[in-house]
Design a protein that fits this description.
With about 350 residues, this protein is an alpha+beta fold. About 15% of the residues lie in helices and about 30% in strands.
Length: about 350
C-alpha cells in the first residue's frame, strides 16, 4: 500500500523519523537476549539497575547507573517493568533523560502484593542494552520465598531471599543509624579510622554512586554495638549462620571450619555472586542461583585506604575470632569458593542481615 503513495518532502521526513524510531526498538528486541549482565556486546553500553526503594504499594523508586556509552551517546534511558521476568521497553517503561551516570526512576500503577521484575535500559545509535534484573513485591507485604521484606531506620527497603531455612537480605546494608536512632559516625580521616574502637562506617571513595550500588562499609565495632546495626527482627549473621547458608548451597561439612576459599568444587561462591558487569571478568562460576546477589563492593583497610572494588566483596559475621579480629566471608571474581578468614575489626566490610 505504501509503495503506491507519492510522498512530498514533509511526508518523507515523517517516514524517516518513524523508520529511525522503529529501528531503535527493533534493535531493542534484537539485543534482549544479550542483556541482563549489565553490559551489552552489541551496543557496548555498561548499565546496572539500582535497588528498589520507597516501595509504597502502588509506586516504587528504582533507577540505573550507566558507566559507559559504548562510544555512542545515550539518547534515552529509564527502567522497564512487568509481572513476568526480563521486561523490555515493550512492557511498562519510564523515560529518564539521556547521557551516562546515575539516574532515578518512578514506577507507578502497581498492584499491592504483586511481584514485579525491573530492569534499567539505555539506548544509543546501536540499539538498547538492559541492566541486571531486580524483583520486589509491591507494598512490601512479602519477600522472596515467603520472607518478609524489611526496612531500616533510615527508611531504606531491602529485597530479601530465602536460602534454605534462612531469610537473608539480598542487598548490602545502607543504614546511617543504629536501631535506636543513634547516628553512626562517618567521614573519619584515615588516622581516625585506623585508631577508633567505636562503630563507624564509610562509603567507598566517598562516592555517592558507590553507596547506591554497594551500600556502606562498616567496621566490626558497629556490628558488635549493642544498639543494633540491623533492623528490628534481623541481625548480623554469626559465623555458624554463614555456615548454615553455605551448607544449604552444597558446601561439605568437612571444610566448613577451614580458612581460605572453601566450596569451590561445589561452586558455592558462584551461586552467591551476581551476574553483573560490576564484577571484573571472568567472575568465575557466577550464577546467583541462590539469589544472594553478592557484589564486589571492596573494603576499607584499617589504614583508611579503599581497595578491591570490582574484584572482591567482604561481609562481616558477628563472631569474634580474637581480641583484634572477627570472622568474615568473601567473594572474588577469580574464585568459585567462599573465603573465610579472621579479619581486623578496624577494616570496613559490607553487612548483610539475617532474620531472627
Amino acid at each position: 500500500m505504501f509503495q503506491k503513495l507519492r510522498l512530498n518532502r514533509l511526508t518523507a521526513l515523517c517516514v524517516l523519523v518513524l523508520t529511525v524510531f522503529s529501528a531503535v526498538f527493533v534493535a531493542c528486541k534484537k539485543d534482549e537476549e544479550n542483556s541482563g549482565t549489565g553490559n551489552s556486546s552489541v551496543t557496548g553500553i555498561a548499565i546496572n539497575t539500582t535497588a528498589i526503594s520507597a516501595n509504597a504499594g502502588t509506586s516504587a523508586t528504582c533507577g540505573g547507573n550507566i558507566t559507559g556509552d559504548g562510544g555512542s551517546p545515550i539518547i534515552a534511558r529509564g527502567v522497564c517493568w512487568d509481572t513476568l521476568s526480563r521486561p523490555t521497553t515493550s512492557n511498562n517503561f519510564t523515560s529518564d533523560g539521556s547521557g551516562i551516570g546515575l539516574y532515578s526512576s518512578s514506577i507507578t500503577g502497581l498492584s499491592n502484593g504483586v511481584t514485579y521484575y525491573v530492569r534499567s535500559y539505555a539506548i544509543n545509535a546501536k540499539g538498547t542494552a538492559y541492566g541486571n534484573q531486580v524483583s520486589f513485591v509491591a507494598g512490601n507485604s512479602v519477600g522472596g520465598g515467603g520472607c518478609p521484606v524489611v526496612k531500616d531506620i533510615d527508611g531504606n527497603w531491602y529485597n530479601v531471599v530465602q536460602i534454605g531455612n534462612q531469610c537473608w537480605m539480598a542487598e548490602n546494608l545502607k543504614t546511617t543509624k543504629y536501631r535506636n536512632g543513634d547516628t553512626i559516625p562517618t567521614n573519619l580521616s584515615n588516622a581516625s579510622w585506623s585508631t577508633t574502637s567505636s562503630g563507624a562506617y564509610a562509603i567507598y571513595n566517598n562516592a555517592v554512586v558507590n553507596d547506591s550500588i554497594y551500600g556502606k562499609l562498616y567496621n566490626w565495632y558497629a556490628v558488635a554495638d549493642p544498639r543494633g546495626l540491623c533492623p528490628t527482627g534481623w541481625h548480623v549473621p554469626s559465623d555458624a549462620e554463614w555456615q548454615t547458608l553455605e551448607t544449604s548451597l552444597g558446601m561439605p561439612a568437612s571444610v566448613l571450619n577451614n580458612t581460605g576459599g572453601r566450596g569451590s568444587a561445589q561452586n558455592v561462591g558462584g551461586k552467591m555472586k551476581a551476574v553483573s558487569s560490576l564484577w571484573l571478568a571472568p567472575n568465575t562460576g557466577a550464577t546467583n542461583s541462590s539469589g544472594f546477589t553478592g557484589l564486589p563492593g571492596g573494603f576499607r583497610h584499617y589504614n583508611g585506604s579503599f581497595y578491591s572494588i570490582g574484584s572482591d566483596g567482604c561481609w562481616w559475621s558477628s563472631t569474634q575470632y580474637s581480641t583484634p579480629n572477627a570472622w568474615f566471608r568473601g567473594l572474588s571474581y577469580l574464585s568459585a569458593g567462599v573465603p573465610r578468614y579472621p579479619n581486623a575489626k578496624s577494616n570496613g566490610c559490607s553487612v548483610r542481615c539475617v532474620r531472627d
